Amino acid sequence: MPTAKLRHLAFTARDAVKLAHFYRDQFGMRIFHTDPDGSQFLTDGYINLAIIQQALDGDVPTGFNHFGFHVDDVEGAMTGLVDAGLPKPAARHTTRPFAEYRAIDPEGNWFDLSGHGFLPPTEEN
């Protein structure tokens, strides 16, 4: 089985723009996408960092939210998760082009699965 590549981490923040500017200014990360709600997406060219704007009417606390794997075979990865007794990953219903499926590990942590990777489609993944 090929090794999955960890390529995406996500945090929920009270002020996504301010936090993104911190990582940009302190660590040289590049902001490559901004959602209409203010969520920010940065990269170091290898891993992307999603900073999701917390919604006052949402039920997601600030802090760590999820991570994402770039895999060579999405269907095979999903089959392996189901065979391990986990729910089948669900299609991500979003306009963000960064991940196709959301899955859950045995402890209840969210993670994404992507066959195309997490950087913008015009960049190398």
Automatic annotation (TrEMBL):
Gene3D superfamilies membership: 2,3-Dihydroxybiphenyl 1,2-Dioxygenase, domain 1
Signal peptide start and end residues: none
Residue span(s) of domain VOC: 5-116
SUPFAM superfamilies tied to this protein: Glyoxalase/Bleomycin resistance protein/Dihydroxybiphenyl dioxygenase
PROSITE patterns noted in UniProt: VOC
Source superkingdom: Bacteria
Protein name as annotated: VOC family protein
